[in-house]
Amino acid sequence: MEAESEPYVRLATLRTLHRVVADLNAARSLAGTLQAVVEGSVHGLGFGAAAVSLVRPDGDLMVAAVWEYEEREFGGPSVLLGQVGSRESWDRLLAVSDHWGTLRFLPHDRGWAVGADIPRWTGDGPLPVYANDWHPEDGLLAPMYSAGGDLLGVLSVDRPRSGKRPGAWTREALEMFSLQASIAIGNARLRAEMQRALARLEKEQQALLASEESFRQAFEYAPSGMAITELHGAARGQLTRVNDALCRLLGRPRAALRQQSFLDLVHPDDRGLLERTSAESGRAELRLSRRDGGYQWVCLRNSVVADAAEGPSFLLTHVEDIEDRKRHEFQLAHRASHDALTGLPNSAELRSRLARRLCPLPQGPGGAAAHGAATCALEGAAASHSPSGSYGPHSPRSGQEALEGAPGGAGAPGGASGALEGLSGPGAGRTMLMHGYGEHERYSGSGYGGRDVIPERPPGYGEPPPDHVHAVVPADPGTAAEPWSAPFRAGSGAGAAPAAQKGLAVVFCDLDGFKSVNDRFGHNAGDAVLVEVARRLQQVVREGDTVARLGGDEFVVLADGIGSEEATELAVRLRNAIIPPMRIAGRVMRVGVSLGIGWAGCGMSIEEVLHAADKRMYDEKRARGGAVRGARGERSHRRAG
């Protein structure tokens, strides 16, 4: 090439550069581009061998491609592939070499500058005769830089086929070629990074699609209810997606549920609980309405599904059917608080309901208890009575009206014709807040008829709530009502006008002649009598009143918001309900009853309330000659349990 005329050399160089650059641009991968670089250096620029050392991410340079004009079967520059040289050694080598423009020429007499870790191969060409001849240990390097000036790699060429050191035109062609190679390598790297990014993105998209499909299947085919709720915008709180299990659980079509929110479905009593439930990891047990109008007990568990960039996206709610568990819980609680034989509230539940109704705050200077736990007596001094407990008139001078009764015991021929009048009593009525012991409409699940099967636990004696209505023991008839004896709400003004007196009556009932039933007919018959008595008592009380079995043959009735006359009428109804004959197992049986009416007021203890009513009942029983207590105050008659 050097012997040709200058115009021809330039034209041939341009043609060669055009061809090898076209080969560079045709390469699609980084490996293909590097191979095109070394092949173009050998076949296009007239060198016998070429190698490309590429900068690795750690900064060191590794031999990534080699090529020679005549490939050797053994040895040759191909042994350099994969060898690594440190960046420090390469920088020192480039610094001590002669600068031929952008090229670096290292003559053989400066071979000491080549670090021991730089990959090197020495050809077996002839030794130079003239100063311009190529020495086998000479080296020509073409550093390749990115557009930002960072070193991409080094193109090393060796053994020019002319045997001479490259002239100006060859060096210029090599410079131009190395510049194009830098661009091609940069583009190849960019394409490789893009391909890796695209492959990674495609993999992530496939993983996302697989995850979405897994979520869809887990959501749609979950055995329990699942719902997605909107967290933002005008549709906040609305159900945007529900699964088939939730539709079946609530008996509602998917389209209908997607137009509602949980607030639209929740039981009114559970709305506050739902509003207090946290969106993140919140949990609540409440009732949701079904299409048939009933309510379903469910457990809601919330999870917020968040986007890494935009924050919370939607709320995922797991809806578990807990109807059976709730039913069992209610049944267990009901068994613990109710008598197994009669189904009535037991002694513990009776005390619990009294505790919820009363507070420790007494009324008036002496307090509610200072009213003497005023009780109404059922005192019936009988002019004549049968052994079964029929009664004659009692002197009204004792403060009691006459007690007149029909024969009520076993074997007595008569029926129930008596009346209870003038029980020690307070005057006309007032309305008392009914709470604490009624059968509340609390559980409305299927199969329970809307009745409460778990009474609220008593809060104990503490500060009364703002809406608490104090229970006050009514004053005796004919006595002027004290200002504190009128019912009042906590915090009401002192000048409030007193209302007509009504209170919380506690009617103690003890069966007469029950021991005879047990002795004559056995305990099974006695149990049947207790069940029948319980049924009759429940039939004659008001809705909201409590009929409880205290134990054995003793029953207690709580009636709130009644006056003295109403309490007397209630006692008459209770007596008349019990004394008619009962047909048990084909046999006719009769029992009588002794009644004592007490009054419960705030400031009284539960034991005081029950003891007062029990004492009045005992006094009435003793006046009629019934079974009395022993020397230690205990019943001498036998009870069936």
What does the model show?
This protein has 14 helices and 21 strands. With 641 residues, the chain is of the alpha+beta class. Helices cover 32% and strands 20% of the residues. Helix 1 runs antiparallel to helix 2. It has a seven-stranded antiparallel beta sheet, with helices on both faces. A five-stranded antiparallel beta sheet has the order 9-8-12-11-10. A five-stranded antiparallel beta sheet has the order 13-21-16-18-17, sandwiched between helices. A hairpin with a 5-residue loop joins strand 10 (283-289) and strand 11.
Separation of the first and last Cα atoms: 127 Å
DSSP strand content: 15-25%
Q: Mean of residue pLDDT? A: 76
Main beta sheet: 7 strands, antiparallel
**Radius of gyration, Cα only, in angstroms?**
52 Å
Shape: rod-shaped
- Helix count? 14
Q: Please give the order of strands in the largest beta sheet.
A: 3-2-1-7-6-5-4
Helix vs. strand class:
alpha+beta
Indicate the percent of residues in helices: 25-40%
Number of strands: 21
**Low-confidence spans: pLDDT under 50, at least 5 residues?**
1-5, 365-460, 477-498, 629-641
